Amino acid sequence: MIRDKSLQRLNRPSYGSISNLPGTAPPKVPPRETYLSEKIPIPSTEQLLWVLLWATVLGLLCQRLAARLGVVTGKDLGEVCHLYYPKVPRTVLWLTIELAIMGSDMQEVIGTAISFNLLSAGRIPLWGGVLITIVDTFFFLFLDNYGLRKLEAFFGLLITIMALTFGYEYVVARPSQGALLQGLFLPSCPGCGQPELLQAVGIVGAIIMPHNIYLHSALVKSREVDRTRRVDIREANMYFLIEAAIALSVSFIINLFVMAVFGQAFYQQTNEEAFNICANSSLHNYAKIFPRDNHTVSVDIYQGGVILGCLFGPAALYIWAVGLLAAGQSSTMTGTYAGQFVMEGFLKLRWSRFARVLLTRSCAILPTVLVAVFRDLRDLSSLNDLLNVLQSLLLPFAVLPILTFTSMPAVMQEFANGLLSKVITSCIMALICAINLYFVVSYLPSLPHPAYFGLVAVLAVGYLGLIAYLAWTCCIAHGATFLTHSSHQHFLYGLPKEEQEDGESSG
Fold first, then answer.
1. Residue 293, exposed/middle/buried by CB under 10 A (0-12, 13-18, 19+)?
2. Cβ proximity of 251 and 327 under 8 Å
3. Do 175 and 263 form a contact (C-beta atoms < 8 A)?
4. For residue 504, what pLDDT is reported?
5. What is the pTM of this model?
6. Domain extents for the chain?
C-alpha cells in the first residue's frame, strides 16, 4: 500500500490534523469491554420496549463515532475537547460529565445497598449497605493491581452473572412473546402520561450514559493502528464496530429480560393485589411494603425483587439481588476508568486511580447515606430512577461534541461523517434535545414549592446556554460558514500546528 501523505494536509497550509504522529505508541488503557451498559431500566408494561430497542441502536451509533474518533486521531474525546473548546465552555462541559459520572456512581451505591438488604433479608440496613460499597471499591482497586487480564476476567464474570440471573427471571416469569414482539417493533404508548415519559427518558439515560462515550473513545486506543495506512484505519473501524455491536447486543438482551419480566409481573397490578400475593407467600414479611390501596404498583428495583420472590419463590428474589450486585460492580469499573480519562483529557491532570475512586465514591456515598438514614427505601429507589433521567439530560454534552469532531475533515481526514451520517445523527440529536426539553417543561408543575422554580430557572438557562454553544460549534463543523466567528474558525479548518502543541502540553 502506497502511503498517501496528502491525507494529512488540509486546504489551508497553516492548519493540520490532530492525529498522533506516525509511529507514536498508543497509551496503555484498561479492557475495552468496560463500555457495556449496565444500568437496568424498569417500566411497568411492554409498551416502552421499543424505546429500549431504539436507544440501543442510538447507543451503537454513538459508540461507532467514539471509536472512529479514537482510531483515526489517536486521541480520546476529552483530549479533542481540550484542544478545540475555549477554557470556560470546556470547564463547564467537564463538570457536566463529572456530574454524570457521580450520578452513575450513586446508582451503583444504591443498587448495591438494596442488593445487600435483599440478600440479608433486611438484616443489613440500607445505610449499612451504602457503607459496604466502600469495601467493594478497595477490592476493585486491589484486583486492578494484578493486571488487565484478571480485570477483564472479573468483568466477564459480572456480565455472565447478570445474563444468567436475569435470564432465569425471564424463564420463570414466562412473559407473552407476542406482546413482547409487539412492544419491540410497534412504537406506541396509548394512555401514557408523565410517569411513562419519566420511564422513557430514564431508559435512554440508562442505555446511553454520556461518560461511556468519552470512555469508549479512549478504550479503542489500546490497539496499535498504523494511521498512515488508510486500509488499517478502515479495518480497525470495522472491527471496533463489530465489537460494539456484540457488546450492546448482550446489553440489550439483559435489559430486555428485565423489562419483559416486570412487564409480566406488574402489568395493571394494584398495591392491594401485590400485598395479598406477598401475604400468602413464604415472603409474607415483605407484604407491608405495599400500601393497601387500589393504586397501580410503583415499580422500582427493591419492590421488583420482592414481588418476583412473592410470585416465583424466594430463589427469584435472591437471584435478582445477585444480579443487582453484579450490575453495581460493573458500573463501578466503567465509572472509574471514565472519570480518569475525562479528567486527564479535559484538564491534563493525572490522578492515581485510588484518589480518583476515593473522590467520586465519597461524593456518591454522602448524599446516598443521608437519604438512606433520614428517608425510606422508596425515596432511595426513586432517587435511582431520577439519576437515570439525569443521564439522559446530560447526554447532549457527549453526543454534540462527538458529532462535531467526527464531522470535521480537519480532525477525521477522509473518515469524517458523510452526508447521510450527518443527517441521521443530527436528527437524532435534535430529537433527544426536544424530548429532554419537553420533560423539563412538563416536570415543572410537579415541583413541591414555588421557590424551586427560581433554582430550576437558573439551571435551565445554564443548561440551554451550553447546549446552544455546542450546537453552534456543531453547525460550524457541518459547514455553516455564515455562523463562523473569527475565534472559532478552527472548527472549519482545524487547529494550527503550534496551537496543537501548546494545547497538548498545557492544562
1. exposed
2. no
3. yes
4. 55
5. 0.82
6. 5-442+468-505
